[in-house]
């Protein structure tokens, strides 16, 4: 209990300190045990795995209060947690028995205090941490959270340093020994029933949801899920399916335009090929007629037929534009052809 008393003495010395770096066996000073300014985290000359013993040397910790303690590598030895009826102090030197009412305790260590006989009725089962098994540590003294509405109570206001961007401000946490469902008013020091949603408030402790909004009314719990109206889900669904259908329609129109272009090219190519075939068939028919005419000795008729037929164009040009699928033949002034 000597270490516990020293810690309580130096808890009010709010000077900034750095985390200890002394390892096992190295020298330390018990008088340097303190709570860090602003966060009230326990600090000593020793590192996270050791504590400063009364002999002035760092020794391995003998217990832990957290399920997953900080500062231990995966293969390091982790001290055990304390059994029921005992607690591990901030120094983590050894397990100690629970403290009776009015005994000195460490800051925010409600678990160090012995529970009342009716602790099942007084225990805070919420996540707000009003007490531990019906016991609270206020102003470094063990108490029971059994004060009812209208009775005088004890209050503890602790100012923590908080940050918002580059700004620094004080976040005051106020705790009392009132029963669950009530709070200790800091002005009148009387237990008052907690307020419901939308009621006016000045601090989080006044609200049953433990969340006093900036506009001065009790709001829902900070961890409560956000519920939206059915119309929000409908709008989101319409937006999703609308986007899908719009994408499909856009892709369909783009591909249809590309198909129309390819179809037009194929049609022009077929018309050109058909015109060429007709010209070849016409040339073949003219040649056959000319040969037959010469064979019958009817030179005049054949000459006149050949003259008439030769005056007709061999290829009937189509009114359609070129398909672009065939190469054109160009001739320069010397009669040489180029593709």
Tell me the layout of helices and strands.
Layout: H1 2-10, E1 34-35, E2 42-43, E3 50-52, E4 58-60, E5 86-87, E6 96-97, H2 119-122, E7 135-138, E8 141-144, E9 155-164, E10 167-176, E11 182-184, E12 191-193, H3 230-295, H4 299-310, E13 330-331, E14 337-338
Helix pairs in contact: 3-4
Sum up the structure in keywords.
339 residues, alpha+beta, two-stranded antiparallel sheet, 27% helix, elongated, disordered N terminus
Class based on secondary structure composition and strand pairing: alpha+beta
Q: Kindly estimate the percentage of residues that lie in beta strands according to DSSP.
A: 15-25%
Question: What Rg, in angstroms, do the CA atoms define?
Answer: 48 Å
Query: So what's the overall shape?
Result: elongated
Q: What is the averaged pLDDT score? A: 83
Please give the share of residues in helix: 25-40%
* Run of helices and strands: HEEEEEEHEEEEEEHHEE
Q: How would a textbook summarize the main sheet?
A: 2 strands, antiparallel
| Uncertain segments | 1-18, 309-320, 323-334
Please report the number of helical segments. 4
Say how many strands there are: 14
User: Which sequence of strands runs across the widest sheet?
Assistant: 1-2
N-to-C terminal Cα separation, in Å?
106 Å
């Amino acid at each position: 209990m000597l270490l516990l008393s020293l810690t309580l003495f130096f808890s009010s010395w709010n000077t900034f300190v750095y985390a200890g770096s002394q390892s096992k066996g190295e020298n330390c000073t018990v008088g340097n045990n303190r709570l860090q300014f602003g966060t009230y985290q326990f600090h000593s000359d020793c590192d996270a795995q050791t504590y400063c013993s009364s002999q002035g040397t760092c020794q391995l910790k003998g217990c832990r209060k957290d399920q997953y303690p900080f500062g231990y590598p995966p293969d390091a030895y982790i001290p055990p947690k304390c059994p029921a009826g005992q607690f591990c102090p901030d120094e983590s030197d050894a397990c100690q028995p629970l403290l009776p009412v009015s005994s000195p305790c460490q800051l925010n260590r409600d678990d160090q205090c012995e529970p009342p006989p009716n602790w099942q009725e007084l225990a805070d089962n919420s996540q707000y941490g009003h007490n531990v098994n019906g016991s609270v540590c206020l102003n470094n003294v063990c108490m029971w959270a059994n004060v009812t509405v209208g009775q005088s109570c004890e209050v503890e206001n602790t100012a923590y340093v908080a940050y918002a961007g580059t700004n620094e401000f004080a976040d005051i946490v106020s705790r009392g020994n009132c029963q669950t469902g009530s709070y200790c008013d800091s002005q009148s020091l009387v237990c008052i029933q907690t307020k419901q949603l939308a009621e006016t408030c000045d601090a989080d402790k006044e609200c049953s949801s433990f969340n006093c909004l900036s506009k001065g009314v009790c709001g829902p719990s900070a961890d409560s899920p956000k519920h939206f109206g059915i119309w929000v889900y409908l709008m989101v669904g319409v937006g999703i399916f609308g986007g899908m259908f719009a994408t499909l329609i856009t892709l369909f129109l783009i591909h249809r335009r590309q198909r129309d272009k390819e179809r037009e090219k194929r049609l022009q190519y077929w018309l050109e090929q058909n015109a060429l075939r007709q010209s070849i068939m016409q040339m073949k028919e003219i040649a056959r007629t000319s040969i037959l005419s010469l064979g019958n000795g009817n030179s005049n008729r054949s000459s006149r037929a050949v003259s008439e037929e030769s005056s007709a164009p061999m290829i009937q040009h189509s009114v359609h534009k070129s398909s672009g699928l065939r190469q054109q033949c160009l001739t320069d002034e010397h009669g040489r052809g180029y593709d």
